[in-house]
Amino acid sequence: MNLIIWLVVGGVIGWIASLIMKTDAQQGLFLNVVVGIVGALLGGWLIGPLVGGGTLNQGDFSLSGLFVSLVGAVILLFIVNLIRRRAPR
Question: How would you classify residue 23: left for phi > 0, otherwise alpha for psi between -120 and 50, otherwise beta?
Fold first, then answer.
């Protein structure tokens, strides 16, 4: 059941982050889920200790945990966009 929650929440967080970063047209459902899950891990690792709240990585399903995961997903998309801009086409 935990895996299903990770996939659903990861998809929603990835979708919201892609809307914020205006990359929604470039991503599909699968990439939204990946961005959400990796963003949650990144947010829990980088931002979680700064805010002192629980993260989704620790099983804390709260508003602060969702916010930390969303910020992590936005940071991940920002880094990906920077790499895409510099790569030769």
Answer: alpha
Containing domain of residue 74, as a range? 2-86
Per-residue pLDDT of 35-85, as tens digits, reads 888 888 888 788 777 877 666 655 656 777 788 888 888 998 898 888 887
Q: State residue 24's pLDDT score.
A: 73
Concatenated DSSP letters of 8-49: HHHHHHHHHHHHHTT-GGG--HHHHHHHHHHHHHHHHHHTHH
List C-alpha distances in Å: 15 to 47, 50, 53, 58, 89. Answer: 20, 25, 23, 22, 26
Total domains present in the chain: 1
CB 15 within 8 A of CB 32: yes
Q: Which structure tokens are listed for 44?
A: 């829990």
- Six-digit token pair at 42? 């990144």
